[in-house]
Design a protein that fits this description.
about 230 residues, mainly alpha, two-stranded antiparallel ribbon, 7 helices, globular
Length: about 230
């Protein structure tokens, strides 16, 4: 085990095999642990929920109802069942984006993380399209003429890339700028200027990018699942 390369993370060596526990991977595990613990707490509390909500129950019901309404308004009533899926994805992305506030490297500043999220949406999108439109969905790739098949396929790939690199680029840009700010400013100003930058790149941009990723994903799934 080698702790010398702090930029890459912790190096583990097993004979000639080497692998790193990177900062992004560690931050991902922490975000996952927080969300899993919250889910377990909600599950335990469910048995004690009352007909008239108070306190913690109010918070949980407010989150569920808000996401439910948002999904219906964005995708339509027939896609209401996606509310839980997109709440989980939105919660992970915004927590990952906000992890920079506590000194972690945001996992979404790593292309491997945003790529995995984008591929997940790609799979869900096409599974939904096939499930709802059957053979008509396959035929849509050959419309308006079979010669357009390569162009249609490129368009599908571009959707994945746009989801991946939009989130990755914005979060990585914030990490780089904040890193430069901490190096440039003297110790007296390190608690002033970087704090303002954190407010924008972590709080504002973090929430905005989580929202954009979620809305675009909902739009892609709705469009591919449309029978019209």
């Amino acid at each position: 085990m080698d702790f010398t390369n702090k930029n890459l993370g912790v190096l583990f060596e097993f004979g000639e095999t080497k692998f790193y526990i990177t900062q992004s991977l560690l931050a991902t595990w922490i975000v996952m642990a927080i969300l899993i613990i919250f889910a377990i707490i909600v599950r335990i509390k469910l048995t004690k929920f009352k007909e008239v909500p108070t306190g913690f129950q109010n918070l949980v019901e407010c989150i569920v109802e808000t996401m439910d309404k948002f999904t219906i308004n964005t995708m339509g009533p027939e896609y209401r069942h996606f509310g839980g899926f997109f709440f989980g994805m939105f919660a992970f992305i915004i927590c990952a984006n906000y992890s920079g506030l506590v000194g972690l490297r945001p996992p979404t500043a790593d292309v491997a993380t945003t790529g995995a999220l984008a591929i997940t949406i790609f799979i869900v999108t096409h599974v939904t399209g096939i499930k709802r439109r059957k053979l008509g969905y396959v035929k849509s790739f050959f419309e308006p003429n079979p010669i357009f098949l390569p162009i249609n396929l490129i368009g599908e790939v571009s959707n994945v890339l746009s989801l991946c690199f939009r989130l990755f680029g914005n979060m990585l840009g914030g990490v780089i700028i904040l890193g430069l700010a901490y190096q440039m400013f003297p110790a007296v100003l390190k608690f002033v200027v970087p704090s303002a930058l954190h407010a924008y790149f972590d709080l504002f941009a973090g929430a905005l990018q989580a929202y954009i990723f979620t809305v675009l994903s909902m739009t892609f799934i709705m469009q591919k699942g449309s029978k019209n």
